[in-house]
Q: What sequence folds into this?
């Protein structure tokens, strides 16, 4: 049960770091589009294309697995 909790905790932590980093990058790269009327239209806002989510989740799961092995061998 302890191995499972370490794995799940590591996975959640790494996934949250990934989500925060991708949010920061999307915010930094956002360029506001102003309409011709001088106002800002929220309907025209595009946050980019996120097609690599599954790949990143699989990589995070593998990294988490290897981190649990490293933690286990240190004890």
A:
């Amino acid at each position: 049960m302890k191995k499972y909790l370490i794995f799940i905790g590591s996975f959640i932590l790494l996934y949250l770091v990934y989500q925060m980093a991708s949010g920061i990058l999307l915010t930094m790269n956002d360029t506001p589009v102003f309409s011709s009327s001088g106002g800002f239209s929220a309907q025209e806002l595009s946050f980019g294309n996120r097609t690599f989510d599954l790949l990143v989740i699989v990589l995070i799961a593998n990294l988490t697995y290897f981190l649990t092995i490293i933690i286990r061998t240190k004890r």
User: Anything to note?
Assistant: The CA atoms of residues 11 and 64 lie 5 Å apart. The chain is about 65% helix and 0% strand. The chain has a mean pLDDT of 77.
